[in-house]
Write the structure tokens for this entry.
Amino acid sequence: MTPFDYVVAGIAAVFLGPELFSIFGVPVSVTLVMIAFGFLAGVLVGATPGLGGVMVMAISLPILISAFGFSSDALLPVMGFLIGVMKGATVGGAVPAILFNTPGTPDSYMTTLDGYPMTQKGQAGRALRVAHFSSAAGDTFSDVVLVLCAPFLALLVERFLDFPEKAALLILSLSFIAALVGASPAKGLLSAALGLLVASIGTGNDFYPRLSLDTDLLSNGFPLVGVVVGVLVIGAVFDEFEKTLSDRTAAVPGSRNGLETEGRLTRRDYLDILPYVGRSALTGTAIGALPGIGSTLAATLGYAVGARRHARVAGPDEPAFGEGAPAGVAATEAANSSVSGANLIPVLSLGIPGNTAAVFLILAADSIGGFNPGPSVFRFSEDVVNPELVIAYGIFTSMFVANALNWTIGGVFMRSMKVMTRFPKQRLLPVVLLLTLTAIYVQTTDFAAIWITLCFGLLGYLMRRLDISPLPFVIAFVLGGRIEETVRQAFAATGSDPWFLFNRPVAAAFMVAALFVIIWSTRRKKRL
Amino acid sequence: MMKKHKSDRVLGIVIVLASLLILSVWVPNDIETGVIEQVRRRTVLGDSLLPVFAASVLLLSGALLSIGRPSENRGLTVANLRFIFGMGLIFVVTLVVMRFAGPLLVDVAGDVVGAPDVYRALRDTAPWKYIGFVLGGAAMILSMVWMAERRIGGAVIVTALAAVLGIIMLFDIPFDDLLLPPNGDV
């Protein structure tokens, strides 16, 4: 098969895959339906303060796997749903930020700065339309960059990097995430080291499972899904729920209605915000391509870049940034949305998850089997069909289908979601908690898994309280086994050379960069 | 200006002590092979490599935190600890109800009406299979709402029961191969 054939096969796998139903004789594939469901569910939870796309992913994974099974046919519908959720949640997060000054997702915080003042001026509809247009544009741009970059990056890695270089690259990625995510490099390192330590419990090559304290509970290691869902989802639920205890008046049912969400954008409006959307899309995509650097930073930088331009070019009668400037909403939303596509560059090309959505894509691939995200996926073999490559192009196609949904029905659906902010968090979060624990149980049918998930939920909560980002922990836990295996292979391949990470130029450069990024970020934080 | 706290220093000292304990006690006593091993005249990496590396990075991070400046993070407060205790209590009680309510009621029903009194035989039969999940799940939601609002109204009870029934409809009714808690354990 030629590269073009692989692209066509990926598109066909999405559009002509197993048929769910037909409309006027036109078959509609199950993958398309799942992308649509995922997108709508994502907008719904994104628009609900306190919830997030990660929660839907955690809850839906066991249901999806039960519904579709463990065959390779299950991969695209399941991945399509998760991708739909990822994209929908990004758009939906702007709704409560603009209407009620309450960010639906952390990266929507900057949207409140101009979105809510616009609402106060009676321009809620315009603000929502600006947010939707900017978000969809940033997301689409980012996906184009993903499709163009990921295969080339993967080919470069496969062609030029041997085991020592791959091991050094994994270490560099982890140190990069640890150093730059969260409040301080020391806390990032702490989080990543804890993840590696937990990953080493009950695993290893020896007959005796290491660090298991000779107990059955630890000898099989911790279940991947229990640890990830515990730290990311349950920890976040605990955190949000505790906040509702001190802010009981935050969500009183029925107190928020009657908001006007009409108001169209003119051609002039689109032309005015386009330069901001373009700059923020570039900023967000560049940041998203680096593993672990989240959409919150992208939104902050996009907003700062936009504010500088606005101060330079805006007329005296135009509102400044922070006082209800549509360009402020555009700059933030384009930046945070353009992270989502680019965030998949490291996971698809290097197998390194860069954000929580990528962690769940890896979890799905790991549970179903038949697809191992990483550079080996992009083997354009001509004699034998590489099914993983077809899936990869199917994933790219799914992303563009989700974008098409975003451009067509996303805006209308997003504006109808204001009702979601009426649900009081203190009643919604316990339901989400039970739903998540049930999702864990049905996958494992073991009560111990619920306790393990709750324990890691407590860890996630404590990390948030101590200002430690849980993302390096989760990524280190997911990558721990692979890092160890790659280091073992590199050690063996170099004839047990103890300096294998330092006596080859590329590997040495990666290791120096790993040390440099930690030292640089530590010194930078000290200066701040 | 935000008030500065020493919580990061305390955290750093705890992490330094914990990592020293891991390196000196846990790793040497609970792993068969060291960092580097000789196997049939070949030098290979042993199972201690990853934990030693992780604990060393942990030690480094703890040292950096303990010598760092005071930060704005308050650390854990008494209110946080009270919250953890309250949530822990809720989970222990409601999960015990979830785990044992079904078998207990089946046992009682068996004594009273002479029905089969082995829950395992009924774990895939309605309504028995739902007893633990409905009681434990609803109790979990209600106790958390009570924790937040300090009162339980009729609407909250209806919401809790509707949520539990919704979860049953989501996981149990469409899929024969999925078991609700605690039915996989009994």
Observations:
- Chain B touches chain A through 75 residues (CB under 8 Å).
- The longest strand of chain B covers residues 36-39.
- Chain B has a mean pLDDT of 89.
